[in-house]
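Structure first, sequence second, as always.
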């Protein structure tokens, strides 16, 4: 009897300990073993990590996925967030074109077969895709600044041409436009219901992919817009420098930066071996392969989930892609550290930033024209702007990247105006060089417009170490 009671007591105690242990694990008070490459019948089923969660160390495949920006679920964004007593006055949007066919081909490999027509039952899809095609078909007589009128308004080739926008690229910007519509028009009533051409400022480079990207975003933003109210201006320079493009000093910074890139590549023996292996596969000299910029084509394979090319000598592999992509990321890191690119960026971005603050200042004066500005551009447009603003940690512009400047008025103090800067939906205002210090001394959720104006008019030149006080003097400074 005594033995039986002791047995029952021990059994109850064991059950209690088991219950306590499981409870502690459930509430994460003690760790659960997650040893790699171990399989145990007692292990719990592991939950796959969220694919958008950033890995703890640099991962070239993860970075490439972010760059592709494949449309999926509606993204969360911080555009339009402000206290109730702030009124949205104007919005200035800079975009990179959407997904495109490569600009370069890998020599002696089969051409990528990607269909650049827009097909409703093919992924990625958007509810406004068919309506977009129909509306673009009605705009053949649209009046755009020359030479834009000669460009097609949407992609339509069964086999994509070099650099042509894909269906993915169109859908990316239809999503961008709809997101901005929900925030800026439906919530904040930025444009009046009877908006006119005067309320918009639209500008693009002379590439079909930038014009089409701008039109896709505009259609998502203003569905079935009146073609008579839309006028795209042509920008000959990817820097959007208009009549202020001649800048010898900027070119000197660029030459120094390109030299830095070259020296970094020479130090990377793994990169050189990779180029050598790939060159043997396609049977061309290594220098010729490097000049063909294979990463551009490889990224297209990656983003469209198409196997890398093969020849009779073998196949270009994911390991080759990882090495080149890793070098790109390391190059971006060194670029930030060396600061040569910053000099190029400050001079390269000044004209467009100066134009933007001028437009904001006119809005502050109460003028209602050009309160929504859209610049449809390239990675080489956004990248200098990001660097010039001091956003050192910003990733290289992905396909369909968007950089937005918002101008707000404080209704409680109507004379006070503030700005917010957002990159791909993330509020980066207080990461900019002109507003980092302001955050330390103020609890306000935005940055005073004066900070941005002072930065563009004076601080950008001071950051160059230039004695000049204007763009012309900084551009024509003697020596380096």
């Amino acid at each position: 009897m005594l033995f039986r009671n002791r047995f029952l007591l021990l059994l109850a105690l064991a059950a209690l300990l088991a219950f306590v242990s499981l409870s502690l694990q459930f509430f994460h008070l003690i760790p659960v073993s997650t040893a790699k490459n171990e399989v145990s019948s007692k292990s719990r089923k592991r939950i796959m990590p969220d694919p958008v969660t950033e890995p703890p160390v640099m991962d070239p495949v993860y970075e490439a996925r972010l760059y592709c920006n494949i449309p999926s679920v509606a993204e969360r964004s911080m555009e339009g967030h402000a206290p109730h007593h702030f009124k949205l006055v104007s919005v200035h949007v800079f975009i990179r074109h959407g997904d495109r066919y490569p600009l370069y081909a890998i020599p002696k490999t089969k051409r990528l077969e990607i269909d650049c027509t827009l097909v409703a039952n093919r992924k990625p899809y958007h509810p406004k895709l068919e309506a977009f095609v129909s509306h673009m078909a009605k705009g053949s007589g649209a009046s755009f600044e020359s030479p834009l009128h000669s460009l097609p308004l949407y992609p339509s080739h069964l086999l994509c041409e070099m650099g042509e926008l894909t269906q993915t690229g169109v859908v990316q910007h239809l999503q961008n436009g709809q997101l901005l519509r929900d925030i800026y028009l439906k919530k904040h009533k930025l444009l009046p219901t009877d908006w006119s051409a005067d309320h918009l400022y639209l500008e693009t480079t002379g590439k079909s992919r930038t014009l089409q990207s701008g039109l896709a975003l505009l259609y998502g933003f203003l569905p079935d817009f009146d073609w008579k109210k839309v006028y795209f201006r042509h920008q000959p320079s990817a820097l959007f420098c208009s009549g202020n493009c001649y800048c010898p000093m900027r070119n000197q910074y660029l030459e120094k930066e390109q030299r830095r890139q070259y020296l970094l590549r020479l130090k990377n023996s793994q990169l050189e071996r990779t180029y050598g292996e790939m060159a043997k596969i396609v049977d061309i000299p290594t220098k010729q392969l490097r000049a063909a910029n294979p990463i551009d084509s490889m990224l297209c394979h990656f983003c469209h989930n198409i196997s890398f090319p093969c020849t009779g000598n073998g196949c270009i592999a994911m390991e080759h892609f990882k090495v080149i992509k890793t070098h790109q990321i390391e190059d971006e890191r060194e670029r930030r550290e060396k600061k040569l690119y910053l000099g190029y960026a400050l001079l390269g971005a000044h004209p467009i930033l100066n134009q933007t603050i001028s437009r904001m200042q006119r809005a502050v004066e109460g003028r209602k024209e050009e309160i929504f500005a859209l610049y449809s551009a390239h990675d080489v447009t956004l990248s200098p702007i990001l660097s010039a603003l001091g956003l050192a940690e910003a990733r290289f512009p992905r396909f369909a990247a968007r950089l937005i400047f918002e101008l707000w008025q404080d209704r409680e103090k109507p004379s006070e105006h503030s700005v917010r800067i957002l990159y791909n939906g993330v509020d980066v205002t207080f990461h900019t060089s002109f507003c980092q210090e302001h955050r330390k001394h103020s609890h306000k959720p935005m940055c005073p417009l004066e900070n941005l104006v002072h930065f563009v008019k004076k601080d950008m030149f001071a950051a160059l170490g230039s004695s000049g006080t204007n763009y012309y003097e900084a551009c024509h400074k003697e020596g380096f």
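Margin note: The first strand starts at residue 86 and ends at 96.
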